Amino acid sequence: MTNITIRKAEGKWVVRSGGAVLGESSNALELLEDDRAPVIYFPRGDIAMAFLDQTDKTTHCPHKGDATYYSIVNKSSVSENAAWSYEAPLDAVADIKGHLAFEVQDSVKVEQV
């Protein structure tokens, strides 16, 4: 059985891509799922949505629901499907509704500041 815990992420978090700050939040959530690395979810209102383009990609998680994906587009790069959101998460993880998570990669950094 999958064990998921959602809690307020301590401190302030920032997400950057291509040298640009996409968002900064003191209200981020940390999602812990079994032995996976924690995932930081940023409130949508703290993200510069102008840099995100929704893609056709969707995935289904039996524990969280259906995820919608976004590519990050900035002057220096495009990071395909680098952000995701559960628009209508399952009740057990309802706290992540209205939040975005980012896949950490060479062009995308999620850091505590």
Question: Any overview of this molecule?
Answer:
The chain has 113 residues and is an all-beta fold. The chain has a single domain, classed as Metal Binding Protein, Guanine Nucleotide Exchange Factor, Chain A, CATH 2.170.150.40. 0% of the residues lie in helices and 56% in strands. It contains no helices and ten strands. The protein has strands at 4-8, 13-17, 20-25, 29-33, 39-43, 52-61, 65-73, 78-86, 99-102, 108-112. Strands 1-4-5-9-8-7-6 form a seven-stranded antiparallel beta sheet, with no helix packed on it. A hairpin with a 5-residue loop joins strand 4 and strand 5. The mean pLDDT is 95. It holds the Pfam family NTP_transf_9. This is DUF427 domain-containing protein. Residues 14-103 form the DUF427 domain.
Q: Beta-strand percentage?
A: over 45%
Q: Name the CATH class.
A: Mainly Beta
Q: Count of helical segments?
A: 0
Indicate the CATH architecture: Beta Complex
Order of SSEs: EEEEEEEEEE
Quick tags:
globular, seven-stranded antiparallel beta sheet, three-stranded antiparallel beta sheet, mainly beta, single chain
Q: What is the fold's blueprint, element by element?
A:
Blueprint: E1 4-8, E2 13-17, E3 20-25, E4 29-33, E5 39-43, E6 52-61, E7 65-73, E8 78-86, E9 99-102, E10 108-112
Antiparallel strand pairs: 1-4, 2-3, 2-10, 4-5, 5-9, 6-7, 7-8, 8-9
